[in-house]
Amino acid sequence: MMQRGTISVHLVEEALVVARQRGFDIDAVLTLAGIAPGLLADATARVPASQYAALWIHLARAMNCEFFGMDRHPMRPGSFTLMARSAHGAETVGQALRRALRFISLILDDFQPRLVREGERASVVLTETGEPLRAFTYCTFWLILHGLTCWLAGRRIPVTAAEFRCAEPPYTEDYRTLFTHDLRFGRSRTRLEFDAAVLDLPVKRSEAELKSFLRRAPANILVKYRSNDSLTVQVRRRLRRLDATEWPDFDRLAGELHMSPSTLRRRLDGEGQNYQAIKDSLRRDLAIRCLSEGTNSVADIAERLGFADPSSFHRAFKKWTGMLPGEFRRGSAGAETAVPRDDGRAA
């Protein structure tokens, strides 16, 4: 199941950096993707993941590169398809990942990726010789690789840590949502860490499934892959049936799920989640829906979502979206906002 959402205009701007430098008609490309050029003037704005995917496709065609022109050697259109087909023929996720990395090594020049397995942890490490690249460059590579690997495994692969050689950029919220809250900047190397047991999982995707996956790319790698039977999904569904003011505390939730608090914490951690993050995600989704579709006051919405007072809600919403509730409501008037649902469809 895919958790659909929105992408910050910060990432839209990052995607356009090289195209701007090369003199492309940015307004024309944005318009083709369904993104109003004027939206970029609002640093707090967000666009549907589907529009960001369309932007990726149109930039790839215009620049003859599926990697936003960020490497000395272009990743020609069709490269992702060839990489996916090469990985699809593997027997295990580890073998598939090695094939994908070998393919990328032949395409890109600015870094060389390799798979490292150390005990219970595995990492994809990038070897670089020049100055650190942008965080967006690293994260775009992770997005491509991680999205493909999750699909091949048929499950969400939790990222336990992500390290970057570069300094922390001003905006990281979407990276934390897509990968992990444990982002470490200014490190000696760039790497993505995950559970090594994933490497032994079998690849059981048919040719028909591969064709469907490729038809939907890159939209399907811009959102988190979640299996229907994951504990995270179970917890989200349980909470959705209740008012936010009735959500159980952690120990009570563990009892309702017939497990100890330590087991619940360990299993959620294994999926790259924690209870507070799940509650925050649901509150954000509910807040966006209430502000977009309803006429209740901000104070009423804050109370419904279980906040002690409106000011607490204002601070939380600003952290989630970069906007105050009133600003968001005014900006969403007359516009359609994608809100994640647990059935994988946009509300």
Automatic annotation (TrEMBL):
Q: Which PROSITE patterns match?
A: HTH_ARAC_FAMILY_2
The protein's matches in Pfam families, at most eight in alphabetical order, are given as: Arabinose_bd (PF12625), HTH_18 (PF12833)
Highest rank taxon of the organism: Bacteria
Q: Name one GO molecular function term.
A: transcription cis-regulatory region binding
In this chain the HTH araC/xylS-type domain maps to 229-331
Give the UniProt entry's GO cellular component terms: cytosol
> Which UniProt key words apply to this protein?
DNA-binding, Transcription, Transcription regulation
In its keyword annotation, does this UniProt entry include Heme? no
Q: Which InterPro entries match?
A: AraC-type_N (IPR032687), Homeodomain-like_sf (IPR009057), HTH_AraC (IPR018060), Tscrpt_reg_AraC-type_HTH (IPR020449)
Give the matching PANTHER family. Answer: HTH-TYPE TRANSCRIPTIONAL REGULATOR GADX (PTHR47894), HTH-TYPE TRANSCRIPTIONAL REGULATOR VQSM (PTHR47894:SF1)
Q: What is this protein called?
A: AraC family transcriptional regulator
User: Which organism is this entry from?
Assistant: Zavarzinia aquatilis
> Taxonomically, what lineage is the organism?
Bacteria, Pseudomonadati, Pseudomonadota, Alphaproteobacteria, Rhodospirillales
